[in-house]
Amino acid sequence: MSYVPDGKKQTFAGFNPTQKQIDAMARVATLVTDIGQTWGAGAVGTGAGNKAFRSTDPISGLIITEVHIDLQGLKAKGDDAGDAIGLGTTPAYIYQNVVANNGIIFKHEIICTELPASSGTITTDINVAWNSSGNKDFDEAIGTGSEINTGGLVAGQLVEDNTAAITANHYAYLTEGDTAASNATYNAGQLIYRMYGYKVR
Asked: Residue 20 burial (CB < 10 Å; 0-12/13-18/19+)?
């Protein structure tokens, strides 16, 4: 499709849309992109698998990044709250905060689409916390940095935090929110970790 300059903006040849129409067409053209693997080997379970997606609003510049996590095959030990959930392979992070890609994150959320479960004693109190190290494994201490504290998840629940102030290049991990687990393995559970960001103009 060709464009013709009109002195103020470019217009479609033979068509002079209003600004509202231009904005609407830009929004329709906004695509959600599969951004590939954002997680370490220790966050890869045995179920349907993880996915990661990103979209950028062409009008406002809002960047939304999602990591879809399948818990099946991941383990929670129950020793200490704040320990990593993972496979037992280093590293167990699910995402790294690369500001050039995701912008300055001002809000993040956990969405539970399938209840976490196990044949053993497991926890549904799953948090996301950030750590400077990208080499943490299952059962290693992550802490509560820039944490989303869910208090326990149920299917269909969304828990958000907008006070995180996440440090650039830090790593996000799924962590145990309590000590309820008894060295058990998840056989169900799917989560979506969603981040909202803007780039500095």
From this structure: exposed
